Amino acid sequence: MKLQYLGDARDAFKWYLLHWICTTSPFSKLVYVPLLTPDDKDSHDGRISHHQFECQDFIRPFLDSLKKEPRSLRRISALGTLNPEKQFEVFVFEPERFIGSGAERREYWADFDASTVENSVAFFDPDNGYETKVQYEKNRRLEREYIGHDELRNLFAQLPETSVAVVYQHKPHRKWSVLFADLVTNLNYAHTAAAARESNLAFVAMAGNAAAGKHIATAMTQYAGKHRVVDFTSLF
């Protein structure tokens, strides 16, 4: 995640989906793990208005607040109070710490205790998404832009059965069907997995048991049904 993306069109999809899940399912808390990385110089990313994505009006002021300088991930905690009738707790893990690589990355994960995340949606937000074989073979320096399956496997093993994990996925230079087929072969640490996606972004949810999997799949299916540009895919 880069601060320059805050409040743009991808954020409209992201935060409205997570708000939807946390207010239409038994999950009572959002735990945001940003995997923060430095902004890109001279990049046009993050400049696409959130008005390009359809969402309810009460989300718009929140998205605008994320764009105010100096930008801060701490403002995301306000997401849980946008609807006074359906509030939920939001915890932002290490809002000012870069994920790094190597030893720094291992220390980052050592400080995150997934076992304490009860009745929650644990949202992992790397720049690009899941690690890929091509990425790791070509350039290990790109490690910080992805989240590894070994990392998720360890975190998922600690996650309480009442919680689920959701991972941000930017569309690679492949069809979604090819990417999802690849994920199916690598997500053997989850009981069930499903994705909500549009043309450029996807959010992949993983559950450790059938009950939690049903809760998250139901919420994401309903969300997709309300948004013509969003599709729901059950991976397994």
Task: Give a nutshell description of this structure.
The chain has helices at 9-24, 60-66, 103-110, 133-138, 149-158, 176-186, 210-226, and strands at residues 29-33, 89-92, 120-124, 129-130, 146-147, 164-170, 192-197, 201-207, 231-234. By secondary structure, it is an alpha/beta fold.
Give an account of the 3D structure.
- By secondary structure, this protein is an alpha/beta fold.
- It has a single domain (3-234), classed as 3-Layer(aba) Sandwich (Rossmann fold), CATH 3.40.50.
- It has seven helices and nine strands.
- It has helices at 9-24, 60-66, 103-110, 133-138, 149-158, 176-186, 210-226, and strands at residues 29-33, 89-92, 120-124, 129-130, 146-147, 164-170, 192-197, 201-207, 231-234.
- The strands form two sheets. A seven-stranded mixed beta sheet has the order 2-1-3-6-8-7-9, with helices on one face. A two-stranded parallel sheet has the order 4-5.
- Helix 1 (9-24) packs across helix 7 (210-226).
- The radius of gyration is 16 Å and the shape is globular.
- The two termini are 27 Å apart.
- The model has no long low-confidence stretch (mean pLDDT 90).
